[in-house]
Design goal:
Elements lengths: L1 H60 L3 H8 L5 E3 L5 E6 L11 E6 L1 E4 L3 E12 L4 E13 L3
Antiparallel strand pairs: 1-2, 2-3, 3-5, 4-5, 5-6
């Protein structure tokens, strides 16, 4: 009789251990799924920062909005902003110029003229996806001396 109770206890302990292992597996699965989502979001933000940085460098190089458009326009991926001076450019997920790309970079061009030159203020907004969700925004300025 004692043997029957020991066998029942063994089966019960085995069942409890299996339930604990299943719970641990489910928790770890959720943790890894959330980590994957966070990783994708971090990659998207990093790519947006790179695109905004590239646009800021282009602003410092160009003298006007038209030259900025010429510089950013590769493979017909850029156009002038419809609501003022600036450029809108598209890039794919590997950050290559692509007219149908997922990333959309909007760059405004707002010059403030002075006697010795002009201060170009720009706002760079990086959007992602068809819904064009804002991923990153950067405000920058570049000084352009008169005659240079």
């Amino acid at each position: 009789m004692k043997r029957n109770g020991t066998t029942t206890a063994f089966y019960f302990e085995t069942l409890v251990m299996i339930a604990v292992f299943l719970a641990i597996i489910l928790v770890l699965t959720q943790v890894f799924a959330l980590a994957r989502i966070q990783s994708a979001s971090a990659k998207q933000l990093t790519d947006a920062v790179v695109l905004a940085g590239n646009a800021a460098e282009a602003i410092s190089y160009c003298d006007d909005a038209e030259s900025l458009l010429q510089l950013l326009n590769e493979q017909d991926n850029a156009a002038a902003l419809p609501d003022g001076p600036g450029v809108i450019a598209r890039y794919n997920e590997t950050l290559q110029p692509d007219a149908e790309g997922a990333f959309c970079v909007k760059v405004t061009w707002q010059p403030e003229t002075a006697e010795t030159g002009s201060l170009i203020r720009s706002e760079i907004c990086v959007l992602f996806g068809e819904a064009e969700r804002e991923v990153y925004r950067l405000e920058t300025a570049a000084w352009k001396e008169t005659g240079s």
